Sequence to fold (93 residues):
Amino acid sequence: MTISIDTLVERNEDVLFSDVADGMSLMDIESGKYFHFDETGARIWKAIEGSVAVKDICAGLVAEYDVDAETCSKDTMEFVGELDALGLIQTKS
Fold:
């Protein structure tokens, strides 16, 4: 699925996660794979509470970080697309 600013995303329930000193570590129970996110990736992961639109994640990031809305949208859609491809999240149109 192509990720847009209006795409709704939610976490895969089979993914365990924990904050670590330099970001966040995740483990996909189903595949047994581990992942590590930096601070920004961890912030995006935390923003995915329930079902949330990518545009709402971006609004929070723009308010929190020194980033313009266009760059934030592009980078966040790309990252969320990677999460989707890895099976760490589910998307809804």
About this structure: The chain has one domain: 8-92.
